[in-house]
User: Fold this.
Amino acid sequence: MIHENILDCIGKTPLLQLSRLFTHQSISVIAKMELLNPGGSIKDRPALFMLQEGMKSGVINKDSHIVESSSGNLAIALAMACKIYGLKFTAVIDPKIASANLQMLKLYKANIEMVSEKDQNGGYLKTRIDTVKRLCQQLPNAVWINQYANPNNWKSHYFGEAEEILNQIDRKIDYLVIGASTSGTIMGVSRRLKEKFPELKVIAVDIVGSVLFGGTSGPREIPGIGASTVPALLSPDEIDDVIYVDDYESALGCRELLEHEGIFAGGSSGSSISAIKKLIPTIPEGSCVLTLLPDRGDRYLDLVYEDEWFEMIKKRHFNRNVRRQENLTLQNVV
Assistant:
């Protein structure tokens, strides 16, 4: 088949058993290789679906100026899609964006609005959204895609990779382990898979410093996972459990994925890998665990794959654990 354009190449990503990294004889860990989408990430799916649905409804037309807040991957996906559709696009980003992502946006000729002020939770999300709202008042024909509340976000995953998974897999899935951020992916995939596997356990992966599931706000270095504000799409009642990892554990997961499986993946992939390592000792023999590897590692060369940065967060991780142990000891004494 010869496709008409790059957008026709989105989806149809393969499943891969991570048998070299997870060597447990009876527990299978299967990954959906979303990093193989043409834009380099799973965000190709919601970017295309939200634009197409907006055009179908008439909200988006040929004169529309698309505006969105993004930590990088959705911005790149929208820049790619808007290039094909001939639409103007402005990405509202923050200083935590990976340098590779920023360069890619510039190459796509996207308009870039960089925020610098943190919100009350110490992140940039609310500041980015406030900036989007301001731009929508200022720019002619501006349309905010709003990945945080747009139901077409989760529907893109429901009809996209979740449907593909059901057509690809020939066995029961017991656990779904996915990193959470805007929550579109975990909501969409889990809703479709639960129709087929009602007993499926949905495990959200969140990062230390995120407030998604009631955690304490704090500094986070890796973009694309966690949030400083709870998005409208998130339905906590549909989540069975949450596993927390920190920046070091996420980066370590990335490096282990590369070392054992030869997969060069991004930060949220590493987060899920480390979460699965914590999950496996608690689940029954013969279980099947499914995860998604959302994006490529080349966007994190100056973070998780940079040795000096890795050593810095490794030290922070162990110092945190020492303080936690000291506090527990003190509580026991008291």
In short: The first strand starts at residue 15 and ends at 17.
